[in-house]
Structures are given as C-alpha cells and as structure tokens.
Amino acid sequence: MIIFARLHRNLEPVETLGELIFGLIMVLTFTIGAKLLGPEEATDGRELLAAAIGCNLAWGIIDGFLFVLGRVFERRRVATFMQSLRSAQDADSGLAALHAELAGDLADLGDPEDRLRFYKSIMSEVHRRPPEGIRVTSEDLRGAALVCILVLATAIPAAIPFLLIGDQYLALRVSNAILIGLLFLVGFHWGRHVGSKPWISGTLIMSVGVVLVLVAIPLGG
C-alpha cells in the first residue's frame, strides 16, 4: 500500500505495526471498558470517546519523544562502537569486534571471505572518516510526528458511530466492533508484509489485542 510505503521512509515496518496496535488497544481499553455498562445504564459515549482521544494524543506525544530518544541513543551507541574500532590494539581485534556486532541473521549466510573483505572495508572507512557529532535530525522529527499521528489516528474510526448513531450505548458497541475489526486488518496486512498467512496473522493480532485490553481493564488501564 502506498500509505505504508511512505510511512516506512521514516519508520521501520515493525514500528508502524506496534504504534497502530498500541493506539487501537488504548482506545479499546476505554470503549470496551466503559465499566462494562449494559444498555440499561447511562452511557456518555461522547465524553468517554473524548477522554480516549485525549489519552491517545498524550501517549502519541510521549511515544514520539521516546522514538527520537531511541534514535539518538542508538546513534550514540554506534558512534561509541566506531571509536572503539579506531582505538583497537590491532586489526584482528577490530575485525573480531565487527564480527560480534554484525553476526547473525543474513550476515552469516555470506561467504566467509566476502564477509572478511566487507569487515576490512568498514575498518578502513572508520579510520578514514572523522568522528561525527550526535544530533537530532529532521528524519528523527518526521518519524516522531508520524508516531504521534499513528497513535492519534487510531482513535478517529472510534468516533464515527457517535456521529451517525443516536443511541449512545449502541454507538459505543459499534465503535468496539470497528476497533476490533481494525486490529484484524492490521494483523492481516502485517501477515502479507512478512509472508505469513494473512488470515491467521489477523486473527492472532485481533485475539491478542482483545486479551490485552481485558487484562488492562481490571488493572485500571
């Protein structure tokens, strides 16, 4: 999907998935909870929804800040590692450190000689390039803004029933159904993205999301 392709210019796919699920669970905690009211009890759905949107906005801002913090910390970690390569006692110890840092996943599938040449090229580049300052970049800020928007956007579908249905209790429960359906759609799309069975992924994400909500409600979430 084009919208996800644009998001992933600044966010990793797993970050997009996590923020969407987090936002949906946050709203569901409010709307499914609602003190588990029945239709005979008074339900101020609009006030409840306003609180849910406000909560998602607050957590979107917090998550955006944590996103920037994580990116800067990781950049600092990499810079510290590069400095340790520059100050390595000999080439072999530097190459061993690189192997420990980069080993795993697809890197281990490569030919050992090709991998060694790659490590040596990194060592050469590290010694040639002067240390760079660590700062917050425009990409970090765009990513943080997208994180905030994703968390906040998950609350918008929950508002639609309250604009179309006069019965507040019915609107609340329709809102629940929409959010649960969106959990399934997020899992379905994720399954297609990673090459697993979309229907199974969608059902799993939806089920786990609802279970997490039901766990959060009695704990005061």
Descriptive overview:
With 221 residues, this protein is an all-alpha fold. It has one domain (21-33, 43-215). 76% of the residues lie in helices and 0% in strands. It contains nine helices and no strands. It has helices at residues 2-7, 13-33, 45-86, 91-102, 112-128, 138-153, 156-164, 168-194, 198-216. Helix 2 packs parallel to helix 6 (138-153) and helix 7 (156-164) runs antiparallel to helix 8 (168-194). The chain is elongated and about 75 Å long.
Quick tags:
9 helices; 221 residues; mainly alpha
Give a summary of the structure in a few sentences.
With 221 residues, the chain is mostly helical.
Distance between the termini: 33 Å
| C-alpha Rg (nearest Å) | 23 Å
> Quick one: how many beta strands?
0
* DSSP strand content: under 5%
Structural class based on helices, strands and sheet pairing: mainly alpha
**Overall shape:** elongated
Oligomer: single chain
Helix content: over 70%
State the helix count. 9
Topology:
Elements: H1 2-7, H2 13-33, H3 45-86, H4 91-102, H5 112-128, H6 138-153, H7 156-164, H8 168-194, H9 198-216
